[in-house]
Design brief:
4 helices, four-stranded antiparallel beta sheet, Nuclear Transport Factor 2, Chain: A, alpha+beta, elongated
Length: about 170
Amino acid sequence: MNDVNSNEIRDQLPSDLDVSAFVGPYQFPDNSRRRIPGYLYLGIAALSLLLWLVSDQSSGLVNDGFLVFAIALAAFAVFVLTSSWKMTINERDALVHASRAVEFAVGHASAQQVWRGVRSRPTWRVFCYSAQEPPTHRGLVLVDAVNGEIVECLVEINPDNAATSK
């Protein structure tokens, strides 16, 4: 019997997501990696359908549940495959697109990847402040990570700056 201490068993991030061991600029994982499980789901659905087709229908091992499972899994596989967008805009490109969309010179800015819509289209949410010290304006820009289009742009006077100047 294996004598393993429960404190020794730990979850780990995949090596491409573990930023503690990485030196240099971080490369955000691409959504097109979703294609791998999508094709696996499609293959399992095809195998289930094949088993249902070639089995003896009077068998207690394979029944109509295999057909229902194959159809449901194939539909889910199509959804996964159609939502595995190839990202052409990285975080730095999104910051450049956002700085062009706002009407002020950008100082501090940060980008976060979010997904929008039923098919989970990747989008960069860029929050930026004007270059003045303290910043006079701030903006929120949504940049499509597939084609670089500006989805939405909201610019306002920095309320934090207005509160401190009173």
